[in-house]
Task: structure prediction
Amino acid sequence: MLYLEDFAPGQKQVSGTLRVDAAAIKAFAAQFDPQPFHLNEDAARSSFFGGLAASGWHTAALTMRLLVDSGFRPAGGIIGTRAEELKWPRPVRPGDELHVEAEVLEVRPSSSRPGQGFVKCRTTTLNQDGEPVQVLVMNLLVHERPR
Amino acid sequence: MLYLEDFAPGQKQVSGTLRVDAAAIKAFAAQFDPQPFHLNEDAARSSFFGGLAASGWHTAALTMRLLVDSGFRPAGGIIGTRAEELKWPRPVRPGDELHVEAEVLEVRPSSSRPGQGFVKCRTTTLNQDGEPVQVLVMNLLVHERPR
Result:
């Protein structure tokens, strides 16, 4: 468990991997993003994506799962408050195997919440070819070490 | 179906509503964000959240569902490329009833992709008390009208 004082810019964390198949892409889409290019191979072929593609929000959710399962353990949990950037440079495809590389960019105490602070992290989610499928810069709320 | 030329800053869209219960919060968390405060009422009580709270990524996914089900119909689909802001001012709680208010902020043609452009939207997700639970500023890829 890491308190605010334990974080420093430049620290890195690499997650394990997670494979995404067509069934998972469609199941997420059916619940949260029911657009043809996330649900059906034929419809996807004639879309912007040119083939079945995961919802960006599915990629974001899988990124969170990889991060929670990694050794990244801020005190109090991984609590995102505000993202400054979230982009999907390319879609996640059926069969992709993803992992996440996280890097601490900035650490600062909160001006309004005594005993708490913010750790700004960039998480890059990569496929099996090392191509980024998501870049997220998120501010996490982290507790200071109890005195 | 709306092409790039049909969008203008200030246009607004309001979604229907969607109720979130504890079972849905825990099911999403078990799959994508298995942290105690999203999974278990007792563990959540002593956490930062003070009670069961939905994962922010669950809130984001529900926001997408509300947007897809609304009358918001860009040509080619709702394709987010890059968010400039994503924040969760307060958590979604069991029993919350959410809706989304979307507003077009900016419309611009793409400099690199002929026939396409970007519509920057702010979507604000609100609970039954009118309190924002998520604010997202997203750039959508939208096709120009075929000539």
